[in-house]
Write a structure and sequence with these properties.
By secondary structure, the protein is an alpha+beta fold. It contains 13 helices and six strands. It has three domains: 95 residues, no CATH class; 68 residues; 110 residues, Chitinase A, domain 3. Helix 6 crosses helix 12. The radius of gyration is 28 Å and the shape is extended. It starts with a helix and ends in a 20-residue tail after the last helix.
Length: 333
């Protein structure tokens, strides 16, 4: 089997095996969020299992294959290598189907070893490539995990305002001339009526009514209203000035007085604040990790001469010209 055929076999094993009714959900096509009706019988709809009273231990056995076992830790590692949409399925309604998938994969791999397919040169080469990919990813994680707090804190102190985030809900009552469209059948309120309505909603919240429920029923921002007005989290510079200034001034769970923007009147509830080093250290590691990794790669390439065969991979990309300098081949005026 050539390397090309081996790669093709790896890519098509999932649909081929599913088609053979082994239900190997190794391709997102068969277990996407919108499963086509034609393949639904292969993986019957399942309701998400109820959460156990106590969380199972990482060494809990998930699968038994004769005398061999697969632990929860191994199963979660398998899931973590899926694409994001399949990970969501594997941690939800199709958890059992993906456990079956792992069992089938293990059985096929064991049979391949029994037939000594792992000794074939082309398989060895493919495994070596995969091993290098895993090791390179491990190095990237190592760079991220070993950044010392002093380095992270320095960056936090220098860029605190840009890093700070809040998560918030809001209720919007549009004003005349707002860019927010009227809902079907909605009456255009006057400026005075809009202000009176937002004041009335503020009074209801102050009296103890649930902010999210009022947002769902009354907010003119229909996109967020369905989620109780939830806007997720955001940094400075993402919202209009009046909204941003108010949101970043509120304490967690505090509700603002009515705030006017070009869109209308807002009530804002901050549901979370991420403004301390402790809360943002993880974000800092993710943001600074690529910079440190790129620097490591530059250092390694200085230590080891790297040469590419232009005849096979093509010539280097042209270097972007310095501002004000002519592009190569462009006449100077």
């Amino acid at each position: 089997m050539s390397n090309r055929r081996l790669q093709q076999a790896v890519r098509v094993i999932a649909p081929a095996v599913v088609g053979a009714a082994l239900a190997l959900p190794l391709a997102s096509t068969f277990l996407s969020a919108q499963t086509p009706p034609a393949v639904q019988p292969l993986v019957p709809a399942q309701t998400a299992p109820a959460a156990p009273a106590t969380q199972p231990r990482p060494d809990s056995v998930v699968i038994k294959l004769g005398n061999e076992t697969v632990t929860l830790e191994e199963f979660e590692l398998f899931i973590s290598n899926l694409n994001p949409s399949d990970q969501e399925m594997a941690r939800g309604p199709y958890r059992r189907a993906w456990a079956d998938s792992l069992a089938n994969m293990k059985l096929l791999a064991k049979e391949a070893r029994n037939k000594q397919l792992d000794q074939k040169p082309e398989v060895q080469k493919q495994l070596a490539v995969m091993r290098d990919q895993v090791l390179a990813n491990a190095m990237v994680l190592n760079v991220q995990e070993t950044m010392d707090d002093a380095y992270l804190r320095k960056h936090f102190d220098e860029h605190r305002q840009q890093l700070e985030r809040v998560s918030a809900r809001h209720i919007l009552i549009r004003i005349p001339g707002s860019a927010v469209p009227l809902r079907p059948g909605q009456k255009e309120l006057t400026a005075a009526e809009s202000k009176a309505k937002i004041d009335a909603l503020a009074a209801r919240i102050k009296a103890g009514e649930d902010f999210a429920k009022i947002a769902e029923a009354e907010s003119d921002d229909t996109g967020s209203a369905v989620d109780g007005g939830d806007l997720g989290s955001f940094t400075r510079g993402k919202m209009v000035a009046a909204f941003e200034q108010t949101a970043f001034s509120l304490k967690e769970n505090e509700v603002s007085a009515p705030v006017q923007s070009p869109f209308g009147w807002h009530l804002i509830q901050v549901t979370g604040r991420f403004d301390t080093f402790e809360k943002l250290a993880g974000v800092l590691r993710q943001q600074l990790g690529p910079q440190r990794t790129n620097q490591l790669v530059r250092d390694l390439r200085e230590q080891t001469k790297v040469e590419l065969n232009d005849a096979i991979v093509g010539p280097p990309a042209p270097v972007a010209p310095v501002q004000g300098q002519p592009v190569q081949g462009q006449p100077v005026p």
